[in-house]
Design goal:
The longest helix is centred in the last third of the chain and has 22 residues. This protein has 2 helices and 8 strands. Strands 1-2-3-4 form a 4-stranded mixed sheet, with no helix packed on it. The protein has a 4-stranded antiparallel sheet with strand order 5-6-7-8, with no helix packed on it. It has 2 domains: 82 residues, no CATH class; 38 residues. The chain is 26% helix and 32% strand. The chain is an alpha+beta fold and 132 residues long. The chain is elongated and about 70 Å long. The structure holds zinc ion. The site of zinc ion (ZN) has 8 residues, from loops.
Length: 132
Amino acid sequence: MIRIKVERVRTMPAQLESGVLYVSEEFETAAHLCACGCGSKVRTPLGPTEWRFTDHPEGPSLYPSIGNWQRSCKSHYWIDRGEIEWSTQLTPAQIAAGRAAEERRREHYYAELYPDRWWVRVWRWLKSMLGH
Ligand SMILES: [Zn+2]
């Protein structure tokens, strides 16, 4: 888990440290080093139509997410209460859990739609035979 802390500044320092979200309320801007570690500076203007910065006791939040599409790392993450939450780098367990949930939703959907169809019962029987 990568954590990021807030540091209030007036103007952005020339050298940014990783793990620090620099916030200048006076100039309505925030900056940090890309959370992937590539060293890119990420500038996020703050404002009603830009990013929204919230300072929680646990740490800073920025909304919406940070998408570094134009950089070579293409990283995409959220800064949420001082934690970096990756959106693209899912662990295999998360991917499997997502697929299982999807499967359950689909099954539930068809079961509600066609509760008495023979193939729904066959499908359930097959699934039970396969140990799911
Ligand atoms: Zn990066």
